[in-house]
């Protein structure tokens, strides 16, 4: 969801979904085993999914209910392909997995949408946050003990503090000049 990246130093937005290197790293990190090559249609679907998840997250972050059209869209993404259930037995343990007919970008879209749906269904919605740094706005899950985390990462907290400090300095300088 945070692939629409805001470069905090350059103050510009970068859509990382458009970057083949970022997609390769994403696939490697999550062990998805899909070719990083992508069609325009799939790219558009990924961006649409991201936008849908963002809208849902943004309203949840202010403790409101998501729009029905966004939930409908999320359900469409979750059911994009037919999965089949399979039971495995390894080293004395059973495991149940939903297996796609083909591991491709459609399957990746379903996996992303399903993971987001599991977050909504199984986790504390009051801990879903949007970074308080206006230049960042990343979505994150606050797993801190107190549940009061405002920033997605330390860099954002630091940048926000520096910004507030500079604002106070400017106001102080103006007051002294008058």
Overview of the structural elements:
The protein is an alpha+beta fold. It has five helices and six strands, in the order ββαααββαββα. It has helices spanning 20-29, 40-61, 68-78, 105-122, 154-177, and strands at 4-7, 12-15, 84-90, 93-99, 128-130, 139-141. The strands form three sheets. The protein has a two-stranded antiparallel sheet with strand order 1-2. The chain has a two-stranded antiparallel sheet with strand order 3-4. A hairpin with a 2-residue loop joins strand 3 (84-90) and strand 4 (93-99). It is elongated, with a radius of gyration of 20 Å.
Rg from alpha-carbon coordinates: 20 Å
Characterize the biggest β-sheet.
2 strands, antiparallel
Low-confidence stretches: none
The tally of helices reads: 5
Distance between the termini: 47 Å
Helix content: 40-55%
Average pLDDT, all residues? 91
Strand content: 15-25%
Q: Give the overall shape, derived from the CA principal axes.
A: elongated
Which class do the helix and strand fractions yield?
A: alpha+beta
Number of strands: 6
Please state how the strands of the largest beta sheet are arranged side by side: 1-2
Topology order in helix (H) and strand (E) letters: EEHHHEEHEEH
